[in-house]
Amino acid sequence: MKAVGLTRYLPVDHPEVFLDLDLPKPLPQGQDLLVAIKAVAVNPVDVKVRAPKDKVEEVPRILGWDASGIVEAVGPDVTLFQPGDEVYYAGDITRSGSNAEYQLIDQRIVGHKPKSLSFAEAAALPLTSITAYEAFFDRLAIDPAGKDEGQTILIIGAAGGVGSIGIQLAKQAGLTVIATASRPETINWVKELGADHVINHHHSLVDQVRALGMTFVDHIAIFNDMRHWDAAVELIRPQGGIVSIDDTDLPMPMGGMKMKAASLHWEFMFARSMHQTPDMIEQHRLLNHIATEIDKGHLRSTLNEVIRPINAENLGKAHAKIETGAAKGKLVLEGF
After folding, report:
1. pLDDT over 90 at 325, yes or no
2. Any idea what DSSP says for residue 144?
3. Which residues contact 192 (CB under 8 A, 6 or more apart)?
4. Which of 1, 95, 86 is nearest to 35 (CA)?
5. Using DSSP, how many helices (H) and how many strands (E) does the chain show?
6. Whole-angstrom distance, CA of residue 5 vs CA of residue 156
7. pLDDT tens digit string along 26-46?
8. Which residues, in sequence order, are bridge partners of residue 89?
């Protein structure tokens, strides 16, 4: 099978940052699905894993943690899918990734692809949808059915992949969304997705939120990095909650959090598959829920750009774009 992988961890502009490979087609065991990959998305996690370091892989490593495709075969313990099913998923960071013609994936973290979307549109959704959903409804304990209607949430990094679906999920739950964006195209993007207010993360978040007539906000989601930690602590309401997806090395003073009895939560969507938690199947249910909401017209894909085909050259271009940190929505590669 065709695949795109690496043996060395190189700068993105290196001509051998990715390699076009021909590898054996894997065989499903246990709860595995064998999926014929149709489209893959590139996320910041891909860039972090590929970041330059001295390590050398004896066997080529295949990255990629967002995919859509068609089930070709199933393992003996599979009950949720059958060959021919169209699926989408974010995968398992401990296993071989989706940048290949075929991939093995545990059925418990796979969802049925939204029927109304193309494979490219569907591939843009899984990782970011799981991340935003778990961040809001599992970590911050916001009620997805609207019992917290009228509460406020500040989404820092709102124009990226996680923020783009996060805005929609927060609005669906009845929240007032304050989104950060700085460029005209990203400001328009977050407004299109439903943001009630847009503030510029290059200026004081505290001053801008206070200018909206709000002393505090009920919830804060940090979907880029922790450079705005001090502002987040000042803006979170007493007994409110902050959720972050950044494994930062920046200082995070906790005194202000303690004085407010505010909570800090970490979201890492690979935790369930990495640790084989008893509730792994929740990601299957979550993705099926997102697909249903997409097909009902309640949510939309966050796809912004498609590159064809899936090969080493184009994957390098995609990583270079993600490394700029100026993403708007999702970038997808389609077809081998």
Report:
1. no
2. T
3. none
4. 86
5. 11, 16
6. 32
7. 999 999 999 999 999 999 999
8. 67, 110
* Cα gap 205→108, rounded to integer Å: 40
**Cα angle: 286, vertex 168, 305; to 5 degrees:** 90
Beta bridge partners of 182: none
Question: In the prediction, which pLDDT does 306 show?
Answer: 97
Find, among 239, 333, 324, the residue nearest to 44 by Cα. 324
- Region class of 87: left (phi > 0), else alpha (psi between -120 and 50), else beta: beta
Tens of pLDDT along 300-313?
Answer: 999 999 999 999 99
Kindly state the tokens that stand for 322.
């993600």
81's tokens: 């899918």
Tell me the average pLDDT across 147-158.
98
Q: Calculate the alpha carbon distances from 154 to 4, 45, 183, 217, 263 in Å.
A: 38, 23, 18, 7, 15
User: E strands of 98-150, at which residues?
Assistant: 102-106, 110-112
Its sign, for the CA torsion 151, 155, 159, 163, is negative
Q: What angle do CA 304, 183, 161 make, to 5 degrees?
A: 35
In this structure, are residues 3 and 21 in contact, taking their beta carbons and an 8 Å threshold?
yes
Rounded Cα–Cα distance for residues 309 and 39 (Å)? 9
**Residue among 167, 150, 298, 287 at smallest CA distance from 223:** 167
Q: 171 near 141, Cβ under 8 Å?
A: no
Residue 326: per-residue pLDDT = 79
229: three-class secondary structure by DSSP: helix
3-state secondary structure of 119: helix
**How far apart are the two ends of the chain, measured CA to CA in Å?**
10
The mean of the pLDDT values for the chain is 97
pLDDT band at 77 (very low <50, low <70, confident <90, very high): very high
Domains in the chain: ranges and CATH = 2-125+275-334 (3.90.180.10), 129-266 (3.40.50.720)
